[in-house]
Amino acid sequence: MHDVLNDLHRAGSIPLTHRSLMFLQMSSTNEAHQFVEHYKNIELKRQVDNDLICKKTIFFIIKRVV
Known about the structure:
Oligomer: single chain
Radius of gyration: 17 Å
Mean pLDDT: 76
Number of domains: 1
């Protein structure tokens, strides 16, 4: 799993979640195993692009002002 995530991260074709990036930073096999055991039953939350949030917020503000 580490190799696949690392390849995706290096290619930059698919943005990785914060959790995946944390996994890539694990320095030991034991640490990675504990990480996987902790998160394996916790559902991933959808990450939202910050630019999209900013655009929607600006649109909302302009709409209220006008």
